[in-house]
Amino acid sequence: xxxxxxxxxxxxxxxxxxxxxxxxxxxxxxxxxxxxxxxxxxxxxxxxxxxxxxxxxxxxxxxxxxxxxxxxxxxxxxxxxxxxxxxxxxxxxxxxxxxxxxxx
Length: 104
Prior knowledge:
- The chain is an alpha+beta fold.
- The protein has a single domain (3-97), classed as Alpha-Beta Plaits (2-Layer Sandwich), CATH 3.30.70.100.
- It is 42% helix and 31% strand.
- It has helices at 14-36, 62-68, 72-85; strands spanning 3-11, 40-45, 52-59, 89-97.
- Strands 2-3-1-4 form a 4-stranded antiparallel β-sheet.
- A hairpin with a 6-residue loop joins strand 2 and strand 3.
- Helix 1 (14-36) runs antiparallel to helix 3 (72-85).
- It is globular, with a radius of gyration of 14 Å.
C-alpha cells in the first residue's frame, strides 16, 4: 500500500503567503518531486486556517516514504527552504501509511 510524506508549514505573516505560494509551486514542489523520486506531489492551503500549507509526496511503499527522512535529498531541500524562509515559516513532517483506498 502506498504512503505519503506530509509537510505542514505555517506561514504566519499574511504578507509572506503569496511569495511562498509562488516559490513552492514553481521551485520547491517540482524540486522535491524529482529529488524524492516520488510518484506524485500535491499541495494546498487549509480552508480552516489560511496560514497552513500542506504538501503531500506519494510513494509506492511506506519504507520508501520513511527513507526520505534521513536522506541527502531532504537535507538539501531543508537547507534551501531555510535559506529562503528562515524562521518565518515553521514546518513539521509526518509519514502517513495508507490503510485503505477506495476509488469511485
